[in-house]
Write a structure and sequence with these properties.
Elements: H1 6-27, E1 30-34, H2 39-50, E2 54-61, H3 68-84, E3 88-92, H4 94-110, H5 117-137, E4 143-144, E5 149-154, E6 159-164, H6 181-184, E7 187-188, H7 196-205, H8 220-225, H9 228-233, E8 241-244, E9 250-254, E10 277-282, E11 287-291, E12 297-308, E13 318-323, E14 331-337, H10 340-343, E15 354-363, E16 370-375, E17 378-385
Parallel strand pairs: 1-2, 1-4, 2-3, 4-7, 8-11
Antiparallel strand pairs: 5-6, 6-17, 8-9, 10-11, 12-15, 12-17, 13-14, 13-16, 14-15, 16-17
Helix pairs in contact: 2-7, 4-5
Length: about 400
């Protein structure tokens, strides 16, 4: 009876086995999970692992010295990966974090604005580099994190859309407004449909080491340094100057403009018959300007570096609800895009800057912070609040 010899049959079987394993690896759902060492990212990894994904953990080493998102966080992230039996990768991103976040903050506060680092960090330090590392180094196309937000895809518009999380109290979409379509195409948010209380329960059910870990602060630099003031004082030498009213009358002294922000009331050290608020910061004269509450209330403002997320840049005004800070209530607004004629010939594109016209006056619009506008739970776009002319 003819047929292949035993060694040949073994080679064929071996070849078929290897081809099967290769096909299996291609068909298996692979995903990289960004792990900070907190309960949210740990639970996201565990959920995906139990759903059958081939998970690999990835932690970014962001800060030098002590910080929950770094030294302690890397240890806890490693423990979670060991517990799940998955690989763990650590990428040294300290130089990138220094350039994109620390230098960005120091420059902003030194010039009299109050930058929001989180949205900048998400785009330039976290999601962009993580997705690039996953695809180029690990040949994995998707990255998941423990953020509370949702991503959907609109086939009619051929566009990925960013939505608020089901748990509105934990929704983090505000900090994600600067993510591009390319980034959204490769991101997964397993906790977008989960209440925070349920996250803790899931972590406990899976026996995760981080199940009872306390909540971290929204800003890692504050957590690592004790306060934003302490962080800034490490990089900016305070220069004493005058606190003045709108007419330029000297009312007091300050120890550095980087300690003040628009709308601030406490810590002015001024006795006055009525409450005073910071209404402006003049870096050229090294002055902090104060006034009454009405002086820091506006009916409109402009926004630069706009990213239209869930819809294409409009060419006409649209109605929306806007948040000018993370914890503020969304308020009705008309969003008016500047045209190329408004911007001049060098305008990057329609919608790169917009004017916000509020239905009712808004208190404490702070240059450097983010304005993010929504249609219900759909995040339309956002950008950086400009300093008034």
């Amino acid at each position: 009876m003819g047929g292949a010899s035993t060694p040949t049959r073994r080679k064929l079987v071996r070849c078929q086995y290897l081809n099967f394993q290769k096909l299996r690896r291609l068909l298996m759902k692979k995903i990289v999970v960004g792990l900070s060492g907190g309960v949210d990212s740990s639970t996201a990894a565990a959920i995906l692992h139990h759903q059958g994904y081939e998970v690999e953990g990835l932690t970014l080493w962001l800060m030098r010295g002590k910080g929950q998102c770094c030294s302690e966080g890397m240890v806890d992230a490693a423990h979670i990966c060991e517990q799940l039996g998955v690989p763990h990768h650590i990428v040294d991103s300290r130089d990138l974090f220094q350039t994109e976040i620390i230098d960005y903050l120091v420059e902003g506060y030194g010039s009299g604005i109050t930058p929001l680092p989180c949205s900048q960090c998400n785009r330039a330090v976290k999601f962009g580099p993580m997705l690039n590392y996953a695809r180029t180094e690990l040949e994995i196309q998707q990255v998941a994190t423990g953020h509370y937000a949702r991503i959907s895809y609109d086939r009619d518009r051929d566009r990925y859309q960013l939505r608020r999380a089901v748990d509105r109290g934990k929704d983090q979409s505000y900090f994600l407004y600067d993510l591009t379509q390319e980034l959204l195409s490769g991101i997964v948010f397993p906790l977008g449909e989960v209440e925070k209380s349920e996250t803790r329960k899931i972590a406990t059910e899976y026996g995760l080491k981080t199940a009872d870990k306390p909540e971290s602060q929204d800003l890692c630099l504050v957590e690592a340094n004790g306060s934003m003031r302490a962080f800034l004082d490490k990089y900016i030498t305070g220069q004493k100057g005058d606190i003045v009213d709108a007419e330029g009358r000297v009312l007091g002294r300050h120890d550095g403009i980087h300690h003040y922000t628009i709308g601030q009331r406490r810590g002015l050290g001024i006795s006055a018959p009525n409450p005073l608020y910071v209404i402006g910061i003049d870096p050229g004269r090294n002055r902090v300007i104060v006034g009454d509450r009405d002086s820091v209330t506006q009916t409109e403002c402009t926004v630069r570096r706009v990213n239209w997320v869930s819809v294409a840049p409009p060419t006409a005004p649209i109605r929306a609800e806007v948040q000018i800070r993370y914890r503020t209530k969304p308020l009705p607004v008309t969003v008016v895009p500047f045209s190329s004629e408004d911007e001049g010939e060098a305008a990057p594109k329609v919608g790169w800057r917009v004017k916000l016209i509020f239905d009712d006056p808004i208190f404490g619009i702070t240059p450097g912070q983010a304005a993010v506008w929504y249609d219900g739970d759909l995040l339309l776009g956002g950008g950086v609040l400009e300093r008034p002319n």
